[in-house]
Amino acid sequence: MKWLVILGLVALSECIVIMPLTKTKTMREILREKHLLNNFLEEQASRMSDDSASDPKVSTHPLRNALDMAYVGNVTIGTPPKEFRVVFDTGSSDLWVPSIKCISPACHTHITFDHHKSSTFRLTRRPFRILYGSGMMNGVLAYDTVRIGNLVSTDQPFGLSLQQFGFDNAPFDGVLGLSYPSLAVPGTIPIFDKLKQQGAISEPIFAFYLSTHKENGSVLMLGGVDHSYHKGKLNWIPVSQTKSWLITVDRISMNGKVIGCEHGCEALVDTGTSLIHGPAGPVSNIQKFIHAVPYDSEYMVSCPVISILPPVIFTINGIDYSVPAEAYIQKISNSLCLSSFHGDNTDKWILGDVFLRLYFSVYDRGNNRIGLAPAV
């Protein structure tokens, strides 16, 4: 019996691939430190208004904001393998990295892919363009071998960026999307779906544990779940539609008073965003409730009041998920504390890393549901 238990544990460990993730400073934090954040936002607003999102060949993610991507890990592309630092992002579905032929300044400070050095590379003439809320990449569709840990996806479609805007100070080279195929550039298949198709993973499931304070300690699990990273049982929430990791939120409250989502709303569970985004009106209510005042493009809170501010409660599928003030207020210095709530021109919420550091999250493509449980 003892040997059966040991063999079972070995089999389990072989089924789950655990990828270490590193928490980096976000572009927002880097630009803020350099006193460049306001200029960046103004330039991006001007640039994005000039870009058309109506082209059906373009993968458009207006809510995606590269400014707030924080958790990165390593993948390799090509033969021999070339390593890239990417954001594992549940809010998008495409994989892309900069090409050695990229002409943008941002590419000169990041690792680029030289397709001439890969024996398994296959180029196409098809354009590959992604429009984000805070930037864009423009390039070509290519195919090559991609490795995530010991998982191998052969002939994987990905984008090679020839031109990109809004990524100059990014602490990552590219993005690896883990959402549904419907969000991918038309005619391509996301890497998670390709791995499933090729039988590289035993279960169509992945999970994130995002460490609270440490730079290291965060992990992405592929093909299964290590339950030692959460407390209690997982509470399962069906996705709103099988197009993205959107779920229904019943209501949002503080001190027993509903301050948002009064009649239910949708929220994207998003590892690629560090903040909590929501419609401008309800977010403004939260800022008033916590006495936050405008500070350049952000909202400032008096640091001493953190200990007396109430938690924000997200009620999801009948269960309350509490986000305490210590989590939703960032202490930048002893005198500067900033709200992690950000208002947008949208009717949807985004539950980013502020929420996901508190709650271990599991993404079950087989049953189209998300599991949440308090993180250890």
Keywords:
signal; protease; 376 residues; secreted; 40% strand; disulfide bond; 2 domains; Cathepsin D, subunit A, domain 1
Description:
This is Pregnancy-associated glycoprotein-2. The active site is at 89, 270. Keywords: Aspartyl protease, Disulfide bond, Hydrolase, Protease, Secreted, Signal. One of its GO terms (molecular function) is aspartic-type endopeptidase activity. It holds the Pfam family A1_Propeptide. The protein is an alpha+beta fold. The protein has two domains: 17-43 and 55-201, Cathepsin D, subunit A, domain 1 (Beta Barrel), CATH 2.40.70; 224-374, Beta Barrel (Cathepsin D, subunit A, domain 1). It is built from eight helices and 27 strands. It has helices spanning 2-15, 27-33, 37-50, 105-108, 191-197, 280-289, 325-328, 353-356, and strands at residues 17-23, 58-61, 71-77, 82-89, 95-98, 122-132, 135-148, 151-165, 174-177, 205-209, 218-222, 235-238, 246-249, 251-254, 257-260, 265-269, 276-279, 293-295, 298-301, 312-316, 319-323, 329-331, 337-339, 341-344, 349-351, 359-364, 369-374. A six-stranded mixed β-barrel has the order 3-4-9-5-8-7. It is globular and about 60 Å long. The protein starts with a helix and ends with a strand. Residues 1-13, 47-54 and 58-65 have low confidence and may be disordered.
